[in-house]
Predict the 3D structure of the following.
Amino acid sequence: MNSKSSKNLILIISLIAILACGVSAAIKMANSAPTYDGTGTDVVGLYDDPSTYDNSGADGVASVMVNENNDKTAADNVVYSVVFNYRGYDTLGESFILIGAIAGTMAILRRDKRRGSRKIVYYRKPADNSKASGAVGMEAVGDNDLSTNQYKRKPVIVRCSVSFLMPLAIVYGWYIVIHGAMSPGGGFQGGVLAAGTVLLVYLAYGLTGVRKAFNPSLLHVTETLSEMTYVFVGLLGIFGAMNFCFNFVLSGSEETAMIMNDAVGYHVMAGICCLLIIMLEALGTDEVLPDNGSDNITEKRKAVAQ
Amino acid sequence: MSGILVTVLNTLVILGAVVSAITAVHSERLIGSVLALAATGSFVGLEFIMLQAPDVAIAEVSVGAILSTILYIIALRKVREVNIRDEITKEDAESKDKSNDKEVK
Amino acid sequence: MILVNYIASFFLIALGFYCMAVKKNLIKICIGMGIADYGANLLIVSVGFNPGGTAPIFTMSELTQASFFVDPVPQALTLTSIVIGACTTAMTLSLVIRLKEKYGTLQADQVRRLRG
């Protein structure tokens, strides 16, 4: 036990050292002068007439970005223009990480066709309420083979509510994607919200409904196509002898970042839909009505490993 | 007066996040840890709103408090640590051991 | 420059590392990774906060004559970090599912002992 206690001691000492260094750095940061002190930015004057604004006294990168935002981009949301316009290369890397995660999950959770799904056999306890628990005295009433049995439906309240809520979910997600330039939002946030549709369909119609409603291979292909759109639109700036993600459409209230925003929004939505479908398929099959159609609540199901 | 109120509110939200994180680490049951993680994500999202970052707050709440929790619950169901339906397995029926949602440290 | 935020974010990072290093259940290790992600994101956004600043969005209702912004660059970097955290959570959980199927247990020291 001596090595285990000395290992614990080293662990505790190193964690306390990390915490102490962090706290001392925090106190030193709080007491020093800030690098960006934007008190010199007259925002109302900047918004009224951005071309005559004098940004020669700018301090820090953020001040320059805020001052030039109304000139060089057509977006009101500075964070949106930082993500898609000034630092579009980071967004490209982040999109590739999402593709990599989905490919990895698909590779790990792939189900062998040889093994098949779990076979569940339904039993019913005997009519006399004897004290025998466990496997004694149970009679088999059916199994979960979907080809011979009927799939059990969810309650009607859930089905009606989801039929009402599903278009609202999609519209709300895409509303946040499209209005990313004017209000808080953008591609990532709206994509994740719009991908909640898969969970709503799973809640109301089970795995059978998810398989009928979504096509994972089509989603995956269109996801990679939208990612290629992002790369292509970004590369058009390089082909035109400018920088990556150059704003070449800028006129009035349109800009290149809108195309890239929509591409990333669809990419994130399709990606997270694929991820959820993969994990829900790994979960198992639906409940099935037994052959005689009884919903006897004293029935307990007993799983037989294949 | 508004300066003191904002400071107190900020401290309360941060305290909530820290307490939920400690609950997530030291809870006995795995489902309790997952729900405490969702609570931590919600508190951190609320803190992001108070730090004047609405984009980041939307992303944090939708990813950390909703999507991540759902992935954890699907994984917990798959490794049979949580019984959603009234289902007993062959081993459970024979060994009469129905409380299999506690973790052994 | 809020001191409480910095201390709490470093505490969350240290708590996440403690959970990853000490706990034996595989799902607890994933939860520790998630807590460290929360701490790091909170730290990045707290660094870019100016007391008295408003959100960096040009809307007419929020502008006053002397308003200035909080820093928009750390917020953009935090968006990327949040999505990366979600991706690593998904991949780690799929690995945990596979480990449980293959070894039959979720304790980390028993997984190491059983060989194939």
